[in-house]
Amino acid sequence: QVQLVESGGGLVQAGGSLRLSCADSGNIFSINSMGWHRQAPGKQREFVARIIVGGAINYADSVKGRFAISRDNDKRTLYLQMNSLKPEDTAVYYCNYVTTWGQPYWGQGTQVTVSS
Hints:
Number of strands: 11
Radius of gyration: 14 Å
Largest sheet: 7 strands, mixed
Number of helices: 0
Helix content: under 10%
Strand content: over 45%
Shape: globular
Structural class: mainly beta
Order of helices and strands: EEEEEEEEEEE
Low-confidence stretches: none
């Protein structure tokens, strides 16, 4: 069974940092991209960052310069380092893998709350 398991969310004050992790089950093949999305209350899910395998790293404009995405292949874990957090970063953060034929996989989400 394919699994993506996020962790690392929590409550932090504005200006603080958190690191999210997403461990995969190791049975997702032909991965095209790995990334993060988020969904704030009452809003649509939005793109945050992604790594395109063998290529580029993309960030949403709202997080550029503050967030960094990375991957540890040995641990099969995707990370999102979030610095200089703002209250508007409050959301449920989802890990997302997409295969080369367009099959998406999602984690269960981890809550990030930034207090002002």
